[in-house]
């Protein structure tokens, strides 16, 4: 079984800029059926609606378009506040089957 975690290339100014710089990207591959990728952008706001959330997602997704044609990628895009809330909600014993991670 192949397992790895790596940092994919950073997004550049020409790719939309807002998700560049200090964005955090993590790739996790177990068995490599697909890649689960979480990108935490430097944006410091909570999207107010679906449209704002999709704009963030599409900025990242468009950069990965060619790669996604070759490798299946499950993509999650969070802003910093979204990710902090996600960690807070899911880092509880009840959310993790009785074990906080």
Provide structural commentary.
This protein is an alpha+beta fold. The chain has a single domain, classed as Beta Polymerase, domain 2 (2-Layer Sandwich). It contains 3 helices and 4 strands; from the N terminus they run βββααβα. The protein has helices at residues 50-63, 65-70, 80-90, and strands at residues 3-6, 24-30, 35-40, 73-78. A 4-stranded mixed beta sheet has the order 1-2-3-4. Strand 2 (24-30) and strand 3 form a beta hairpin. The radius of gyration is 15 Å and the shape is flat. The model is unreliable at 1-22 (pLDDT under 50).
Short description:
With 101 residues, this protein is α+β, with helices and mostly antiparallel strands. It is 31% helix and 23% strand.
Which structural class matches the secondary elements? alpha+beta
Q: Provide the helix percentage.
A: 25-40%
Order of helices and strands: EEEHHEH
Distance between the termini: 23 Å
Mean pLDDT: 73
Proportion of beta-strand residues: 15-25%
pLDDT < 50 stretches: 1-22
Count all strands and give the number. Answer: 4
- CATH architecture classification name: 2-Layer Sandwich
CATH topology descriptor = Beta Polymerase, domain 2
Spatial order of the strands forming the largest sheet: 1-2-3-4
Number of helices: 3
Number of domains: 1
Q: Major β-sheet, in short? A: 4 strands, mixed
What is the level 1 CATH name? Answer: Alpha Beta
What would you call the shape? flat
- Rg: 15 Å
List the defining traits of the structure above.
101 residues; alpha+beta; Beta Polymerase, domain 2; 4-stranded mixed β-sheet; 4 strands; 31% helix; disordered N terminus
């Amino acid at each position: 079984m192949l397992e790895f975690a790596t940092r994919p290339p950073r997004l550049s100014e020409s790719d939309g800029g807002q998700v560049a710089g200090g964005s955090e990207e993590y790739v996790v591959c177990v068995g490599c059926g697909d890649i689960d990728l979480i990108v935490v952008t430097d944006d410091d706001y909570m999207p107010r609606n679906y449209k704002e959330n999709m704009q963030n997602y599409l900025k990242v997704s468009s950069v990965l378009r060619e790669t996604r044609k070759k490798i299946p990628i499950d993509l999650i895009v969070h802003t910093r506040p979204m990710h902090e809330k996600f960690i807070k909600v899911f880092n509880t014993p009840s959310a993790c089957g009785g074990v906080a991670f």
